[in-house]
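Need tokens for this chain, all 127 residues.
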Amino acid sequence: MTKPDDTIRVLIPLNVRKKNGRPKILPPADYRPSEDQSQDPHILRAIGRAWGWRRRMEAGEFATIQELAKAVGLAERHVSRQLRLAYLAPEVLKRLTCGREASAVSLYDLCFLAGESWGEQTVSAFR
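Here are the structure tokens for all 127 residues:
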């Protein structure tokens, strides 16, 4: 049995910031990420949602983006922008979903990147 005097205190320096409206713990400045780092879950979720919307539109469930936006309860502009993620180049999708490298591109930038040709997307996304 331990006595109250035997308590060990461990201090871990961290910073908590809000990212996308959620608290995120930031590592110390000298931290180097390991090789098994995974992708940002917000990007993965947005890509999955965009592909789901694309399938529903191709199946004829919705004829327009306006109908889709109303059905999912989001703004038409948001749905239109996010839907572009379903048209990213296969190489970009592979690196975002299967790759273990941290992407330097944000979700916002990815939405606009989808308008470029597939060759330009691969170059621009992973500079």
